[in-house]
Amino acid sequence: MAFDIQELEEKLKEHREMSDRIRACEKRKKEITEELLKILPRATRKYETPHFKASRQERVNIRTSLEDAKALHATKTEEVVDKEKIKSMYISGQQIPGITKTEFFLVKAIEK
Question: What is the torsion angle, in degrees rounded to the nearest 10, for the CA atoms of residue 22, residue 26, residue 29 and residue 30?
Fold first, then answer.
C-alpha cells in the first residue's frame, strides 16, 4: 500500500499534538481537583450548583509489602491466569480463547 509521506507526516504531527493537549488537560484537571478539595468543606460529601452536581469520593490505595501483610496475617493464595505463558502460546500460533489484539501508535517528535 503506497502512502503520501507528507500526509503521513501531517497525521503523525496531529496525533502528537493531540497527545500533548490531552496531557495538558489531564494536568489542569488534576490541579482543579486539588483546588476543589482545598476549598470545599471535607464534612460535606455532595455539592450542587445551578449547573452541576458533584460528590467527594475517597479511594484507599494499598501498597503494603508482602512481608508486612504476612505479619498481619492478611495474605491469601489465589489462582490466576499466567498471562505471559498465554501470550507466548498465542504468539507461537496456538488458538487461545479470550485473546484480543489491539494495534496503536506511539508518536514522538524527532528532536533536531
Answer: -170
pLDDT of residue 42: 85
Angstrom distance (rounded) from CA 17 to CA 5: 18
Q: What are phi and psi of 102, to 5 degrees?
A: -115, 135
* First-to-final CA distance of the chain: 29
At which residue does the C-alpha cell 488458538 appear?
A: 95
Query: 17-32 pLDDT, tens per residue?
Result: 999 999 999 999 999 9
pTM of the model: 0.64
Would you call 107 exposed, middle or buried from its count of C-beta atoms within 10 A (0-12, 13-18, 19+)? middle
For residues 20-51, one letter each, b for 16 or more C-beta atoms within 10 angstroms of the residue's C-beta and e for the rest, the string is: eeeeeeeeeeeeeeeeeeeeeeeeeeeeeeee
User: Mean pLDDT across the stretch 68-76?
Assistant: 94
